[in-house]
Amino acid sequence: MTPRDAMNQAxxxxxxxHLRPRGFTGAMPHLRRRSSQQICxxxxxxxxxxxxxxxxxxxxxxxxxxxxxxxxxxxQKVTAQDIPDPRPRLGxxxxxxxxxxxxxxxxxxxxxxxxVHPRERYDAIATHLIQLIDEQAEPxxxxxxxxxxxx
Length: 151
Description:
With 151 residues, this protein is of the alpha+beta class. The protein has one domain (3-150). It is 32% helix and 21% strand. It contains two helices and seven strands; from the N terminus they run H-E-E-E-E-E-E-E-H.
């Protein structure tokens, strides 16, 4: 098992325990929650050199999303990465502005990159992500829905 495998497993477990009961569907790294008014989107992207990931959120109308070049993203397939803006990263102290990376280990080119830490470390990061969904993503999705439906 690699550090990324351990982190990915902790995220999958957190999704199953905390997000599936809230109506989220899809598979890692792209999750969505559909309602009659909107689709709430969450995408996880691991850093190519390992050791960290970002969690981006976005939303769109209940019928999916059409890109600027006319490609239709159906509700069952649309991801946060399909939405150009706004697509903030959870964890930023200035959310929805700013950047944040969840760090779970060393980069591939750093000493200790292959060290798999105790499961509790990865679980704590996944739990923090769920907390940020409550504190940052849920209000963001409500605000985006209100802005889109009142326009």
